[in-house]
Amino acid sequence: MRVLTLNVWNSRGDAAARTAVINEGLRQYEPDLVALQEVLPDQLPELLDGTGLHGTHQAQTAATQPPYEDRYGGTAVATRWPHRVAEALDQRGVDAPDLPWLTLAVHVPLPDLGDVLFVAPTTSFRLDAEAQRERQVLALSDLDARHRTALPTIMAGDFNADPDTAGIRYLTGRQSLSGRSTHFHDAWEIAGEGPGHTWSADNPNAAEDIERLVRQPGHRRRIDYVFVGSPHAHPTAFARVRGAGTAFDKPVDGVWASDHYGVVVDLEMGLLPALPAG
After folding, report:
1. Which parts of 129-225 fold into alpha helices (H)?
2. Of 62, 202, 227, 244, whose Cβ has the fewest other Cβ atoms within 10 Å?
3. DSSP assignment of 205-225
4. 18-22, 182-186, 235-239, 274-278: least confident range
5. What's the helix, strand, coil split of the chain in %, to 5?
6. CA distance 257 to 203
7. What is the pLDDT of residue 96?
8. pLDDT by residue (tens digit) across 97-151?
9. Furthest CA-CA distance within the chain
10. What number of CA atoms fall less than 13 Å from residue 233's CA on the CB side?
11. On the CB side of 59, how many CA atoms lie within 13 Å of its CA?
12. How confident is the model at residue 59 (pLDDT cuts 50, 70, 90)?
């Protein structure tokens, strides 16, 4: 099974050309589970056209439209098999009321295996917002606990945080937060090669925001992830990471797909044999 995540960068730059590049890339990568961030509601059908994927945008699930969704976009998921929305979680707080991105959690029926929980978050983007991100990853743990299945949960998205930040360390079992702990596998750690930067000064589309938000030369970070649920939470199943790489990390005819690179991960997923009785 192949999982892909990409921040689409809403309608900035040459959106029509970028949308075409992303659509063609999705056809070539042939992912089974896709998490997309910063997607405008009317972009999603164009991105998925001809891919055979079933898509849901947060605008289809939310009771009210978060502010700036029509400008910065929202979260979307796409799956090879028709999915059911389990929850749309609003992660805004009083100190980050302007973030329009919800977390989508869907159940996806995998042939011969049963349902898997697929979670697509987008966390706070500001460099000084780690306290917000800590609260958000704790909420992700609660969401997983509410909806997880026997198969290991898959969580993919733009976490806006380096691997050594508290929130990512919490998700990967390296530290506790608020007296709590959890564990997910970071797919890149298992099968990726090199630093895996996904927001980089090497990408011309990222240059403007890097100058606005960072103002330091040569800025490169790994902030987009695919996480896989732990055996501690899923003792009767497995999701082995067989490959991990960046996606949409080169221009096509001079067009860069986004200001982010994507992450693509190949998984072997299954159920363990039942133990003999007695």
Report:
1. 130-147, 166-171, 187-191, 207-213
2. 202
3. GGHHHHHHHT--TT-EE--EE
4. 274-278
5. 25, 30, 45
6. 10
7. 63
8. 667 789 999 999 999 999 999 999 999 999 999 999 999 999 999 999 999 999 9
9. 64
10. 25
11. 16
12. very high
Secondary element (H or E) of residue 17: helix 15-29
**Count of the separate structural domains present in the chain:** 1
Give the model's confidence band at 26: pLDDT under 50 very low, under 70 low, under 90 confident, else very high. very high
Q: Which pLDDT score, from 0 to 100, does residue 71 have?
A: 73
Q: Does residue 46 surpass a pLDDT of 90?
A: yes
The answer as to whether 276 is a domain residue is no
Q: Is 138 helix (H, G, I), strand (E, B) or coil?
A: helix
Residue-wise pLDDT tens digits, 206-262: 999 999 999 999 999 999 999 999 999 999 999 999 999 999 999 999 999 999 999
Q: Which residue has the tokens 């992450």?
A: 263
Q: How far apart are CA 238 and CA 240, in angstroms?
A: 6
The reply to whether 72 falls in a domain is yes
The answer to the question of residue 275 being in a domain is no
* Distance (Å, whole) CA 35 – CA 121: 8
Q: List beta partners, residue 246.
A: 263
Whichever domain contains 81, its CATH number is: 3.60.10.10
In a domain, 198, yes or no: yes
Buried b (16+ CB within 10 A) or exposed e, 109-146: ebeeeebbbbbbbbbbbeeebbebbbbbbbbbbebbee
* E strands present in 58-120: 74-79, 84-90, 102-110, 114-120
Range name among 79-83, 101-105, 146-150, 171-175 with the lowest pLDDT average:
101-105
Torsion-angle region of residue 110: left (phi > 0), alpha (psi -120 to 50) or beta?
beta
Contact 270, 113 (CB under 8 A): yes
